[in-house]
Amino acid sequence: MVLEMFDFRRFLVVNTNLSLRVTLIVLRVYVWNFFGAIVQSCNFTFTRFVMNFRDYSCANSCFVNVLAEVRNEGVLVQSKDGDDNKTFYELLNHGFSFKDGRARIVANSLRTLALPVAAARFVWMMSGNNRAADIAFYEPRVLAFSDDGIIVPGSSYGARMLQSSPGVDQLSGVIQRIKNQPSSTRRAAITIYLPYDAVRESSDIPCAFGMVYHPRSEKLHSTIFMRSNNAVSLLPFNLFEFSGIIYLTEQATRIEN
Predict the structure, then answer these.
(1) Count of alpha carbons within 13 angstroms of residue 168, beta-carbon side
(2) Residue 12 predicted with pLDDT over 50
């Protein structure tokens, strides 16, 4: 609909034919009325999406403030799904950014990032590895998320980005697209969550959906989409890892982050 509205307005600027303009307006109203009829025929409430978005200077500030926001603004959720009885605070539709991508280390009185583990996770990821034993040497808890004790099926983001299927290196493809259109591309995207993740039963479903890059005005704007994130234990690692990937992309394309 956004694309339709954009094309619609641009078309009206160029064309002055009144009958054609009226036709387009009627078509647009018809589309929206048809969509409204579909919504009314379904038994659910249509709610406007609202994103809570905050800006921070660095990863450390981001971590501290996100924890406070989840605690103060989040909703207490009691999970009663089978044997998985958990209580946690949840803050939906939350987003944030931090300006200095190089200031990626969380270190404060609440939590200090374990740098050897973070570095090992990053190297493991960028090698396209999904073997559980290789990363378990540094992070033994990962074995609990392996279904067969051999591979990490979901959290192996590097394997999904660099070799989701034979010969498919999404990161290289993104870098090339940015080089080809260094000021306007909208196609520089990486998918991590794959269609079969929606149906497979596993102890490890990826928390990240993917990444999108927008090179604009000699700046590389990068966005990460997550379906879920443990703000206490995993956010510091995710900030370190994804900002590292963005930095590598920046260096490969020579666009400032």
Answers:
(1) 11
(2) no
Query: How far apart, in whole angstroms, are the C-alpha atoms of residue 145 and residue 151?
Result: 9
User: Residue 160 is encoded by which pair of tokens?
Assistant: 């999904």
Q: Which residues contact 94 (CB under 8 A, 6 or more apart)?
A: 51, 52, 53, 66, 69, 70
The whole-angstrom separation of Cα 91 and Cα 232 is 13
> Would you list the DSSP string of 151-200?
B-SSS-HHHHHH-SSTT--HHHHHHHHHHHSTTT-S--EEE-S-GGGGT-
Q: Determine the pLDDT at residue 61.
A: 94
What backbone torsions phi and psi does residue 186 show, to the nearest 5 degrees?
-120, 10
Query: 172 or 43: which carries more pLDDT confidence?
Result: 172
**Can you give the pLDDT at residue 52?**
75
Whole-angstrom CA distances from 55 to 51, 59, 92, 94, 124 are 13, 11, 17, 12, 30
In terms of phi and psi (left: phi > 0; alpha: psi -120 to 50; beta: otherwise), the region of 254 is: left
Of 136, 143, 58, 132, which Cα lies nearest the Cα of 97? Answer: 58
Strand, helix or coil for residue 53: strand
Under a CB-based contact definition with an 8 Å cutoff, are residues 157 and 206 in contact? yes
Find the helix or strand (DSSP H, E) in which 219 lies: strand 219-226
**Closest to 155 measured CA to CA, from 227, 63, 91:** 227
Between residues 142 and 6, which one has the greater pLDDT?
142
As a whole number of angstroms, the distance between CA 167 and CA 164 comes to 8
* Contact indicator for 206, 160 with CB cutoff of 8 Å: yes
Residue 193 tokens read as 């969550």
The three-class DSSP label of residue 246 is helix
What sign does the dihedral 171-207-71-237 (CA atoms) show?
negative
